[in-house]
Fold this sequence. Notes:
Layout: H1 3-22, H2 29-36, H3 40-46, H4 50-74, H5 80-95, H6 104-112, H7 117-140, H8 146-165, H9 169-187
Helix pairs in contact: 1-2, 1-4, 4-5, 4-7, 5-7, 5-9, 6-7, 7-8, 8-9
Amino acid sequence: MTDIEATRERILDAAEELFYGQGIQAVGMDAVRSASGVTLRRLYQVFPSKGALVEAYLLRRDERWRRSLAAHVDQADGPPAERVLVVFDWLRHWFEEPDFRGCAFVNSFGELGATAPEVAEAAQRHKEAFRRYLAGLVDDAGAPGTVAASLALLAEGAITTAAITGSPLPADQAREAAKVLLGAEAAT
């Protein structure tokens, strides 16, 4: 890893912790500079604006989140329908993390909305990639494609509810609902 890559990673690590933990609007570039241990000049050389940093933070978070989910699902044994349900097990593990604050994309969009098109686009890409991933699992399980959209809504509702309540139980509840939905579709 080159020096510039290492610096970029340090900045993104600091930005992710601060943005996800405190919110994008509450965190200034000076706080990111301080937490990353780089000079303000170096920070702006790597990320010319806060918008560029926010976009890079969301892109990296998306890649890590989806990679972690896929790795967890890939380790699942059992029939294809079980792999669908394992998504909700992974969500539960995520909800149990001490720094869990909900979906970074929903949070960012909620803060900045239409005033930051790069945030809206990143959120839309993330949600669409998640829906496509679920659609692949649903297809492998032999369920109709329409089930994927319903499962995505279950997952999104579980994420939001877990963030609001501070409880991992919404993942279990969504998993049970997913079981019913997959069973009902298999029976028709």
